[in-house]
């Protein structure tokens, strides 16, 4: 929010009023008039989901302390959110769906309410927060996550025997309060308490277990910041395997609720994880995180997800190496380098799909160039596949086949256009320069032009911004 400066005659009165209520600001000087604190915006500014994320805050870390009851599917807990105020705030929001019983800010009780159909937790601290200051917000809650929905989604996946928090673009608000947008990465520390005999798997490293008479608390912590939707936990009965491959620790888990044949097949697939990472590193450079792994759930989710350091999968058998390649490629494209806005989703899905094609060509299958040619030759110009604007598909189509397929085609076409050497320089430079941050399609396009030394405006217009089949030309990378 932009505040208009006060006329000078009102300046002295404003400063006195501010001091009376404890709101004196360093900016309240003759050179810079006092600006009253504002209510932090209910969204971070993403046009696809205006309530995603929040204005006026930058989260540093989440400390999540939850317990889960399988019989009632009730989740209860407390999350400590450490954040920095980026504006002078009289109130702030977090994205959260569950019923809240208490909120404190820096140890003092804070007023709170739910707004916008229960998605926004609006918090009013006892004293306003000044820009640049650090604070701890603690939220206590208990509820049945399955009873809530947002943006037409009910993301909670649970049976009487298992639960897994995997979904995109929204998952966090069903189990911890967050600044739920890719622009705000934060450290995540997770403790989940479940009945004795059950396992909990989450991101990062297992830091320990605390076993009580009836329950066990599992403690997981990731070493690197992550986007909220990439944080997850799974609880149930799991077979766990772990080791170290070329210096990289790995841990995989498979649900025992699967039949023995499916469990064994899934474990064979999960055990491919470290070798796939090593293969991807040959093209992309060092894996960006300190651990790796994967989890296969018995719940029929219908999709896999690139949860940071430990992707989650449905049971698909042992032969779907390409799926593991896709989710592990996301550790570079989507996790390490997250999207700037959700419209940039092709930078995640198109890149991961292209790395599937690259894996095929390096392991005796079709080349990426052949796959591009097959797509182009076999999908007619009238197909809906060409009607999606890949660089801005709209909220309803961010997971459309064209975002994946045409996104991957764009990369192989770029490879044809600029040459193999410049192409891989572009991808490695993108990873290096955007390391740990966010990226937009416009930034990638500018980088590709800079690294290759070519004017690629028409190329990217044809592939990413035109809802039509690109013309078959050398300029479009179609040889």
From TrEMBL:
Highest taxon of the lineage: Bacteria
Reported cofactor(s): Zn(2+)
Record EC number: 3.4.11.2
All copies of domain Aminopeptidase N-like N-terminal, residue ranges: 61-230
UniProt keyword Nucleotide-binding, yes or no: no
Family listed: Belongs to the peptidase M1 family.
UniProt protein name: Aminopeptidase N
Native source species: Nocardioides baculatus
């Amino acid at each position: 929010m932009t505040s208009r400066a006060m006329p000078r005659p009102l300046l002295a009165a404003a400063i006195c009023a501010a001091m009376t209520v404890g709101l004196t600001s360093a900016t309240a000087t003759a050179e810079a008039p006092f600006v009253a604190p504002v209510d932090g915006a209910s969204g971070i500014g993403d046009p696809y989901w205006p309530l995603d994320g929040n204005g006026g805050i930058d989260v540093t870390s989440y400390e999540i302390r939850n317990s889960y009851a399988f019989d009632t599917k009730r989740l209860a807990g407390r999350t400590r959110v450490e954040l920095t105020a980026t504006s002078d705030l009289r109130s702030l929001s977090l994205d959260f769906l569950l019923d809240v019983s208490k909120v404190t800010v820096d140890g003092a009780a804070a007023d709170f309410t739910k707004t916008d159909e229960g998605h926004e937790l609006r918090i009013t601290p006892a004293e306003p927060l000044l820009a640049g200051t650090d604070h701890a917000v603690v939220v206590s809650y208990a509820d049945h996550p399955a009873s809530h929905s947002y943006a037409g989604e009910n993301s909670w996946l649970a049976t009487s025997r298992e639960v897994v928090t995997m979904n995109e673009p929204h998952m966090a608000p069903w189990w911890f309060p967050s600044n739920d947008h890719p622009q705000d990465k934060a450290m995540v520390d997770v403790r989940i308490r479940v009945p004795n005999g059950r396992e909990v798997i989450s991101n990062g490293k297992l830091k320990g277990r605390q076993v009580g008479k009836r329950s066990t608390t599992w403690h997981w912590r990731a070493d690197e910041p992550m986007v909220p939707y990439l944080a997850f936990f799974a609880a149930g009965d799991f077979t766990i395997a772990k080791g170290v491959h070329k210096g990289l620790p790995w841990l995989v888990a498979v649900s025992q609720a699967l039949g023995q044949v499916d469990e064994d097949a899934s474990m064979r697939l999960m055990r491919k994880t470290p070798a796939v990472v090593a293969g991807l590193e040959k093209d992309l450079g060092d894996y960006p995180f300190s651990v790796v792994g994967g989890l296969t759930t018995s719940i029929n989710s219908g999709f896999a997800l690139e949860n940071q350091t430990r992707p989650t999968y449905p049971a698909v058998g042992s032969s779907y190496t390409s799926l593991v390649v896709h989710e592990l490629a996301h550790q570079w494209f989507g996790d390490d380098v997250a999207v700037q806005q959700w419209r940039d989703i092709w930078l995640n899905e198109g890149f991961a799909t292209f790395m599937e094609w690259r894996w095929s060509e390096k392991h005796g299958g079709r080349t990426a160039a052949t796959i591009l040619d097959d797509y182009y030759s076999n999908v007619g110009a009238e197909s809906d596949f060409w009607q999606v604007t890949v660089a801005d598909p709209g909220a309803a189509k961010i997971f459309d086949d064209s975002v994946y397929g045409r996104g991957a085609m764009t990369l192989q076409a770029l490879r044809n256009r600029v040459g193999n050497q410049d192409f891989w320089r572009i991808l490695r430079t993108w990873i290096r320069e955007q390391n740990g941050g966010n990226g937009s399609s416009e930034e990638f396009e500018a980088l590709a032009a800079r690294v290759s030394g070519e004017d690629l405006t028409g190329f990217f217009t044809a592939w990413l911004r035109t809802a039509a089949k690109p013309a078959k030309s050398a300029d479009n990378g179609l040889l």
